[in-house]
Design a protein that fits this description.
- This protein is mainly beta.
- The protein folds into three domains: about 90 residues, Immunoglobulins (Immunoglobulin-like, Sandwich); about 80 residues, Immunoglobulin-like (Sandwich); about 140 residues, Leucine-rich repeat, LRR (right-handed beta-alpha superhelix) (Alpha-Beta Horseshoe), CATH 3.80.10.10.
- It has a seven-stranded mixed β-sheet with strand order 19-20-18-22-24-26-27. Strands 2-9-8-4-6 form a five-stranded mixed β-sheet, with no helix packed on it. A four-stranded antiparallel β-sheet has the order 1-3-7-5, with no helix packed on it.
- Strand 16 and strand 17 form a beta hairpin.
- The longest helix is centred in the N-terminal third of the chain and has 18 residues.
- The termini are far apart.
């Protein structure tokens, strides 16, 4: 009996000794794959790890954008493919938990955001007064703003996380010049193409005050007074009509509002005339037959009503460019006389031009009646009404 007990004890000790030699569970991620970094696009990468027993893998809660090629496997050297879906405008992170019994290991998965820089306007237009405006920018980046003109002030750039809307506020200063101007606002951020918005501002609108509503100015080819027809109507009585120092002035007792039909008809020495801004109507044939009339200056920003044939048979209409001779046609020889001496060319013809304020050129060219003379209409700087120092009434 004693021998049996001794044998049983020896057998138990042998079993205990064998159980102590079973290895502890392990799982280990190979160096270089414990952190997976992805761009914002969808993609896949491989995690390499070893385990000395059966293993499992799972994605942490909230990271449904991560998928695994397997969720369990056997002992040995293993590879696990990790895939991510395309990301939006905010970076994100998740984790994969690998387990072998009580042993665990973690793989971190990071994915960058899609960079965005979106502006809601590519052009802003202002009149000369200027004003404030905003441009809405959608971005998830740190934005810098630059302007290539000092007459626009700006807000400070703002850093954001995630795709958010930011309104950048700007102020356009008053344009004191009669010339229009433009500037470009550029939004820049690292990693994306810059976006821009062009700001256009019209010139200051000034009605020339060199000619009062109670006068009409004119010039003639013989430096002499020309008078409107006896029954001409202007909306105010004519006081006097003088010509001195190369300029004729017709004075009225009050501001005039019209030039009646045929008022200056047939005045062949009339070279130029300046009409005040108060005139709202020019009658039919008002200047018909004024064969030397090459320059008509209007001061109003609103085109007056224009009667038929108001400028009929004035100086020549706008010139046309002659066609070039074809290769088959010989080029005309220079003109010479029988003695071979140079022929004196005749004086250049005077072409009819209707000068209007710069800010009103488009309005005149499209107005009823005036559109007939669209090729003859030209703008002038409203700050300085064309002068008549040389008495020729020609602007250039």
């Amino acid at each position: 009996m004693k021998k049996i007990l001794l044998l049983l004890c020896a057998f138990g000790a042998l079993l205990t000794s064998c159980s102590d030699k079973t290895p502890a569970p392990t799982i280990e991620v190979l160096e270089g794959t414990e952190i997976l970094d992805f761009s914002n696009a969808e993609g896949s990468k491989v995690v390499k790890f070893s385990a000395n027993g059966a293993w499992t893998a799972e994605v942490t809660t909230g990271a449904e954008w991560i998928t695994l090629s397997a969720t369990s496997g056997n002992a040995g050297e293993n590879e696990l493919t990790v895939s991510v879906s395309a990301n939006g405008y905010e970076s994100r992170s998740g984790a994969i938990l690998l387990a072998n019994g009580a042993a665990t290991a973690q793989v971190t998965v990071n994915q960058t955001q899609e960079n965005a820089l979106i502006v809601d306007a590519t052009e802003k237009v202002f009149d000369a007064v200027g004003g404030a405006f905003g441009i809405t920018v959608e971005t998830n980046l740190v934005v810098s703003v630059s302007i290539n003109a000092e007459w626009i002030s700006q807000a400070e750039p703002t850093a954001v996380r995630g795709l958010e809307q930011i309104v950048y506020n700007f102020v356009v200063a008053e344009n004191e010049s009669t010339s229009e101007r433009s500037a470009v606002i550029t939004f820049s951020a690292e990693g994306v193409e810059p976006k821009s918005c062009t700001v256009l501002q019209g010139g200051a609108v000034r009605t020339p005050d060199q000619i009062p509503a109670t006068q009409i100015w004119y010039t003639t080819s013989d430096d002499a007074v020309v008078a409107p027809v006896a029954d001409a109507q202007f909306g105010a009585a004519l006081v006097d009509n003088t010509y001195a120092n190369g300029l004729g002035v017709i004075n009225f007792e009050a501001g005039i509002n019209a030039i009646s039909a045929g008022a200056f008809q047939g005045l062949t020495t009339l070279v130029s005339i300046v009409i005040p801004a108060s005139v709202a109507e020019i009658g039919a044939s008002a200047f018909e037959g004024c064969t030397s009339l090459g320059a008509v200056y209007l001061s109003s920003l609103v085109p007056p009503t224009l009667g038929a044939d108001a400028f009929k048979n004035n100086a020549l209409a706008a010139p046309t460019v002659p066609e070039e001779p074809t290769p088959e046609e010989p080029t005309p020889a220079e003109p010479t006389n029988e003695e071979g001496t140079e022929v004196v060319e005749p004086e250049a013809p005077i072409y009819r031009t209707i000068y209007v304020p710069n800010a009103a050129v488009v309005a005149y060219k499209n107005a009823e009646g005036w559109s007939h003379y669209a090729n003859n209409i030209k703008g002038y700087d409203q700050e300085t009404l064309p002068g008549f120092g040389e008495g020729n009434g020609v602007l250039e």
